[in-house]
Amino acid sequence: MSRRTTRTDPGVKARELSDTVRATRFSRPTVIAAPAIPRPLHRYGDLDSAPFETLRDISRQCWPTPVGRRRSRDRGIRVLTDYLLQHPGSTWQQRWDASELGIGTASVVDITLDGDYARAAFSQAVGAMYALRVLRPTLPVFRAWKPRKYVSELVAAENDPALVAYIAAVNTATSTETFKRWAIFDVCTALTTQGIPFADLTPEAFLHYAQETRGCTSRTGLHVGHYVGHLAWQVLHSIGHFPANSPPTLRGALRSPQFTTTEMVDRHNVANPAVRQLFIDYLDRRSTDVVYSTLTVVATHVVKIFWKALELINPAQSDLRLSEDHYRQWHATLAIREDGTVRQNPWLVLTSVKAFYYDIQAWAVDEPERWAHWSAPCPIQRSDMRSLVKHQRRTQEQTHHTIRTLQPLLPVLVDHVDERYTHWRNVLERASTAAHGEHFTQDGQSYTRVYSKGDDRLARDGDTPGVHVRSPQFGRTIDAGLYEDAAFWTWSIIETLRHSGMRIEELTELSQLSVRQYQRPNGEVIALLVIAPSKSDRERVIPMSAELFHVIACVIRRITHGQRVVPLATRYDDAERSTSEPQPFLFQRRIGQRLEVMTTNAIGVRIRKVCEDLAETDPRFAGIHFRPHDFRRLFATDLVNNGLPIHIGAALLGHLDLNTTRGYVAVFEEDVTRHYQAHLQRRRALRPVEEYQPVTDQEWAEFETHFDKRKVELGSCGRPYATPCTHEHACIRCPMLRIDPKMLSRLAVIETDLEKRRERAHAEGWVGEIEGIDLTLTFLRTKRDELHRMLTRTTTLGIPVFRGIDL
């Protein structure tokens, strides 16, 4: 989904971004639009002030035929030069700029009132002066002129092999004849209005032309988006005219590139220069470990939400050592966003800030000269993170509830998109063979084939006309091809997601190379789908079911319609802010001159729109919609609840941890009971009878010995049976230690000894020893406080007294 934005200088725009304004992917273009610097070409000598006879002779030399047009152009040049001589200036360009034609306040019709023949001759003369570079019009004036044969005249006058090669490349491109003509015309127009040869047409100059054209022209009947020149840009890049490091598409040039770490920090205007440099150095160090999307989140959390808020609380703050009061004031502001809404997950910010402090502490050991000055105790306490686990459980419960709600609605959604695609496919087929004004009925709805003026024009130009129909349900004429295409891609997206369980970014990364086959020793051929590395950075291969293979085959057949290979398209990654090189991606669409892979945002909007349409007829969809990732959770739930081992499900989903797969699976209560009963029956049936034996005296003695080994100086160890001590008998720090109340006095002795050791370490400068002793003292005092709380609690169990019974 494109966003219209006001274009200003990107550097200024980035500096002026407010903390409350989110920079969009179009607010800071990769290529900075700038008009080329015009330079005199003088291919036929200096014609700036040439007399009429010279201009006439040069035009005859460039375009000797046809004779009738040559004579008409000669008369037009005479009229044009006489008209320009009435205006001030020493050159033809100066007189043109001072004239009504050059300003744009008058047209050819206003100047020549002697009839169509005189107007045609004058118009031909204007085109000749443009092509010979005697006159350089502005873009609005050139567009208002509406030339017909100007492209051929300019190519003949330029006599430039590079321009001829570009035109040949355009004619071999995969596009309609209309868009090919526009691609050639766009380049010729840019050369004329900017006064440059083809060699000087840079990406910056052509983008300037595209932006200027956006506001002064409209191509009726052609879907070109907000900008013209998409096909021209692709061809210019493919033939090597544009630099190799320039974006391969015009849309890629308009999108914002990745922020540098300096730009990430400077967006938030950190007041202290030293702290600003600290954040830049920190992000530079982290950028080698995390992807760009994660780095931007870290920068927002640490710089904007943490430090900028601290600057408001304590403007004099110059290091990372926070007082308890300042930290609590900042923590209180964390719950509410700047727009007044409640922050749903403040623990993400706390985690980033905590990692920031711990990273600097760890790096200070290896590089003290760079990081030790900034090393400080982390102000975030353990109690601040305790509710995180509770929040994660609530979130998982809500997710499972959503999956249980969506599971019975999935068949309804699938049937709806399938029926809609079938309906529009049949409408398109019947309308394509119908005559103008012919009526037909499909699925109880009436349609009428309509030929628009645009269809007639496309047919005359040699292009395939659109299939337009009129129906009472719309009340207007619609393009049946667009509706059928939208219905197909909605159907293919939902079918692919629900049959494969892939992530949305993995869907957009599918290419022709992702489809493989494997032949088993018995001759059976299995279709495979290779999923490119995404979130887990791990490639995986999944076998395709018959349904999934059918969908992928339909996609390939559609995008290769009329050609033998899958077209090369680019893919824009919203998270990484990068455009890929042209590849044979599967989920690509041609929109006018553009050929690109659908974005993840567009796919999400498409699925949401389908659910909104269903809510009009099915009340169960009211306020409910499917997200792309919901199909992945439904896929995992269906696999595991139907008996597939969870480790195989994790491999199919690309999970590195089984716990992640368990979090995806929404288990139903009846499934829990059924699977547990089946598990017990299988264990009882498979377990050998000899294993069901009574415990021997030796086994019992070993069991009792285990409890003896758990006894330590301060109490007892709570580790499981038959497990060794994993904490190397560091009992004070061990969470499994259960302190005996009788050993409270011993804890006091140990605390006193630790404090003496800390004083000695401080005197000797043993910084590492001090840190270890402080950690041990923290554990000791925590265990002592827990023991005091336990001793203050008394509970009456109410065990009945046996009094005997008289029989």
Automatic annotation (TrEMBL):
Listed CDD domains: DNA_BRE_C (cd00397)
Keywords from the named record: DNA recombination
Gene3D superfamilies (UniProt xref): Intergrase catalytic core
Domain of life, per lineage: Bacteria
Keyword Transmembrane assigned: no
Listed SUPFAM superfamilies: DNA breaking-rejoining enzymes
Record-annotated Tyr recombinase domain positions: 463-677
Keyword Thylakoid applies: no
Protein name: Tyrosine-type recombinase/integrase
Annotated source species: Antrihabitans spumae
